[in-house]
Amino acid sequence: MIIKKYVVNSMNEAMTRIRYELGNDAVIISQRKIRKKGIKGIFSKKAIEVTAAIDDKNKNNNFNNIDISDSIEAIKKAMNLEKKPLTKVIQEKNIDNGKKSNESVKNSDYLINEMKEMKNILSNIASTGISSNGKSDLHEKLEGLDLNSEIVEDIISRIRLDKREVDENEKIKEALNCVVSVTKPKNEKIIVLVGPTGVGKTTTIAKLAGRLSLIEKKKVGLITVDTYRIGAVEQLKTYADIMNIPFDVVFSIKDMEKTIENMKNCDVILVDTTGRSSKNVMQISELRAFVEKTNSKDIHLVISASTKNSDIKTIVEGYRVLNYNSLIITKLDETSTYGSLINIINYAQKPLSYVTTGQNVPDDIRCLNCDEVTNLVMGVETVC
């Protein structure tokens, strides 16, 4: 087994050097970002440290179709061989040759450190395994949970630092718990829901109204500024009539303060807003003016669990100017994997307040704790 380490500026450079020196059968067994030392510790440059390996038989014979599993097996066998400690071998060699120069001692220390680092790399490979596409089994397992690449790398780093002899799934769960954030209801007077079109804001606000008025027995008022969507006002008014709670429509920014003042006797006022594209700066600015007039300290960004990873970041960043402080993730009943919950929390850097799991008002809304979110993501339990 031949193992070499390369410090390069890019993966393209690494691949070129690896193929030139080790051949096309070489396997990348680790890579990490480092900084090259600069002058007196400054002006350091980012670099990539890549470790590659190849079976020395393949190197000599130039076989082209080696199975990666053969290389991994060779690594495992190499780790299990009982050999003399490197320090002892070096000492014996020095005695035989009668050379104990400072240079040999320095070389010995360097080799010892290199071997220790290589042993750690080989241990990681043996424990996680490598699939035919060059990814570890752990990496593929986490990707299968629909987690984005940043979270996958974060979880893998946490697990590799965890040296306890416990089940890998338990390590995954604990690592996921570290990146999950949830919050309990804040009991604020004014609650505002914002978010893109089609995520279920109006139905969600009706569920919250039902939960607060029918279950918690609070006096609730409903306000909507969504006069753009056909049927939105009628839909929310129907819910308000069924629950026998006050309802009003705000058509302009100047009417917001007056409408809230008219509902001052309510324990809680729920405000439904117009769905806007997070990429339309003008529409978001208009919505911001409405939200600021509410003086709310409890603003929830509503986003669907089925939102594509590529769109999540755009949405959470586009709505950040509205100063939302928590998340409501809807439509969990419309997806079979729940990695998006953690992706949304991670991108927004805000806690999860509620999830919705269906169309039933007011039943299909609930709060989750960290363990429940993690169990959902790992497929241990479902919510619908």
From TrEMBL:
Domain AAA+ ATPase: 187-333
Topology of this chain in the membrane: Peripheral membrane protein
Pfam families registered for this protein in UniProt: SRP54
GO cellular component, as recorded: plasma membrane
Location of this chain's protein in the cell: Cell membrane
Swiss-Prot/TrEMBL GO biological process terms: bacterial-type flagellum organization; protein transport; SRP-dependent cotranslational protein targeting to membrane
SRP54-type proteins GTP-binding domain boundaries: 188-379
Primary site of residence: membrane
InterPro entries, A to Z: AAA+_ATPase (IPR003593), FlhF (IPR020006), FlhF__GTPase_dom (IPR047040), P-loop_NTPase (IPR027417), SRP54_GTPase_dom (IPR000897)
GO molecular function terms listed in the Swiss-Prot or TrEMBL record: GTP binding; GTPase activity; signal recognition particle binding
Keywords carried by this UniProt record: Bacterial flagellum biogenesis, Bacterial flagellum protein export, Cell membrane, Cell projection, Cilium, Flagellum, GTP-binding, Membrane, Nucleotide-binding, Protein transport, Transport
Protein's job: Necessary for flagellar biosynthesis. May be involved in translocation of the flagellum.
Family per similarity comment: Belongs to the GTP-binding SRP family.
NCBIfam families on file: FlhF
Name this protein carries in UniProt: Flagellar biosynthesis protein FlhF
